[in-house]
Amino acid sequence: MSRALLLRTATAVTCGLALATTLTACGGSSTAADGGSDSGSKGGGGKTVTVYSADGLKSDKGDGWYDKVFADFTKKTGIEVKYVEGGSGEMVQRAVREKTNTQADVLITLPPFIQQADGKGLLQAYAPQGSDKVNGADKSADAKWTSVVNNYFGFVYNKKELPTAPKTWEELLDAKYKGKLQYSTPGVAGDGTAVLVKSMHDFGGKDQAMDFLGKLQANNVGPSSSTSKLAPKTDKGELLVANGDVQMNFAQSKSMPNLGIWFPAKDGGKPTTFALPYAAGLVAKAPHTENGKKLLDYLLSEDAQKLVSEIGGGFPARGDVKPTDANAIELTKLMAGVEVFEPDWSDIDKNLTGYVDAWKSATGS
Fold first, then answer.
1. φ, ψ of residue 273 in degrees (nearest 5)
2. Which of 22, 30, 51, 108 is nearest to 316 (CA)?
3. Residue 248 to residues 107, 254, 318, 363: CA-CA distances in angstroms?
4. To the nearest whole number, what is the mean pLDDT of the chain?
5. Integer Cα distance of 185 and 359 in angstroms
6. Contact (CB, 8 A) for 125 and 144
7. Neighbours of 141 (CB within 10 A)
8. What is the pLDDT of residues 62-71, one digit of tens each?
9. Which residues in 237-247 are b (16+ Cβ under 10 Å) and which e?
10. Tens digits of per-residue pLDDT, 152-183?
């Protein structure tokens, strides 16, 4: 593959939750009620802040990381959080449509969509309190965005139907996966786009990856704008394998006993992954800029970061926060032995349309 797609390779060993690269979350379809600005003045008036976010950090049961930290933030500041959820690309597209009548104050999405948002002029510079503790690879040099929760790309499988997880991409071509395999749509969902990134790395280039994904299409159920909806289908046995990400799927596995996490390898190679963080930025011309700044400060506060693993099932963005809860220990074991590579997000942002078009052509999507 193009060496621009791979800057370096490292091995994830027992580095605890400091796994100081980048992590990330998922894409999905819009599931939350739309939030708008209130009557407060531009720049910070009013008592609301509107967040547009990729899915994965908020729980339908009200026990997710967002649920906890948003409630704590409101209790502390009196500012109500209005929340809108969707796929990473979907949230960026919505913000673009609203540029002449900005509704969002904070945008939280996965790479390469946070870079895409910056390139489209959607973000304004702001370095939240605590961002100096975030690894340089997990934030922009010009303070347009910073990671608030670290995460890694991965796959899930049904542990009841498959006593052992698949090991390689090539195994997924087996006829037993026909109609039992699904991944979210590249270019729409962050985790769907991650399928392209990982396959291009593992197979050594765009053409080789598209050749494989074209063959895999015979088993693929079809497009899905939401990654988060694939885990419940996998847990129930409707699917045997689907894509996802560590944070979201680890949190889901607490209520989905048949859900297991795995990392595909190319035949003869090692299992690989890459960091896919939830990256947050202050929206340009936000209706409530000051409230947006306060929320970003809180998301990176020690109190909120200490809850990332315990409640969210993810990895703290701050390198100085090193949780030791049971989830943190389990997550460290999960990542042991998995090779972590670092994509060139600038290259992917620049060429994403071409990569997605190549995928559409290869799969007939």
1. -160, 180
2. 22
3. 18, 11, 19, 27
4. 88
5. 10
6. yes
7. 6
8. 999 999 999 9
9. eebbbbbbbbb
10. 999 999 999 999 999 999 999 999 999 999 99
